[in-house]
Amino acid sequence: MIENNHNLWYFSFRSTVPDKVQSNINHPSLLPLRCKITMTSSHLLISNLTKDWIETMERWQLQLFWIPAVIITFATFIANPILLVCIFMSPALRRETRYLLVANTLVADIIFLILNLVTLIGNAVRAEIPWLVCQLSTALLVTASSCAIITVTLMVIDTFTAVRWPLQYHNLLSPARTSSILGVVWLLCAIYPFTLMMMMMKDEIPNNKVTMCLTLLSFGFFKVNNMGEIEMYFFVSAVICTFLIFYCYIRLYMVTRTQGIWHSRFSRARVTVLVHGVLLLLYFAPGLVFALEIYIFQEKNMSQDLRVWISTVNANVFMLLPRAFAPCLYGLRYREIYESLALLLHRHRRSRESTVS
């Protein structure tokens, strides 16, 4: 659909060019004119796609999905910083690899939620956002989301390493080494989306503005023949993370099945696997839905209403659920974080009492 619309705009503009120019359109001297035609058609296509998207949302009243998105975002803004303070104010927790991984997940979620909220507000007030800013926001959103997913995968690897090699664990995953690994993770997560952004911006006019910034449109507008690369990126990343998670859990069960930690229905091992499984599902499911969005965005016979519905629900509900549950499932589940939080609240209460007296 994108390619057909793009060609339609291209040939509509081209029909206004004199025959003599059209007959020599491939001449090297006319390359700037061809670039201008492509950029103009691209701008018109973006404007029309955005306009159709807004009309569909208004017809179905899909703006109501912004309400739970805002509620989840502000609830997470309260919980995540408190847990980060509990981790970084405790010297003991700062030296634990698992808590550094939890902190990195919370930071990535906060960055994702801030960018998502700013984009949501801009879309709600129909602010004209520069296309370059929209592309940059999309790249940062993908980076933060990918980093959170990979960090959750590293938590499983960390648990496997601690159980499999308990004596060498602190040497293998020291705090300094963990910090270096997380830095590499952020770098790797940023390379592809920012490279893709630069490739897209070569075909666009930097001063273009849109009234709605959507991640799906940012990726969907990319050249159709390069869509396979985007889908392959998400697919390969998901396969690698899934393989590592299943391998670690299977090996963990094989190593510990004779130790009796799985016998009780509510044993710590079972609860840990359940918590990891729920959070991994919540983080991976929106990525799979987004891959489905990209696929149906290219299909000619798909309803525009279906595209908008799936994209809206995924962006405002599914992608925010893991950010809402992460503080509870990971943060408050750890006894040390809970005790640090209780101590922080106790100190705050004592300081208030002393101030009042």
UniProtKB/TrEMBL annotation:
Cell compartments where the protein resides: Membrane
Key words, A-Z: Membrane, Transmembrane, Transmembrane helix
Major subcellular location class: membrane
SUPFAM superfamilies according to UniProt: Family A G protein-coupled receptor-like
Domain G-protein coupled receptors family 1 profile: start-end pairs: 79-330
Single GO MF descriptor: olfactory receptor activity
Record's protein name: G protein-coupled receptor 148
Gene Ontology CC entries for this record: membrane
Gene3D superfamilies in alphabetical order: Rhodopsin 7-helix transmembrane proteins
InterPro entries: GPCR1_Superfamily_Member, GPCR_Rhodpsn, GPCR_Rhodpsn_7TM
Pfam families: 7tm_1
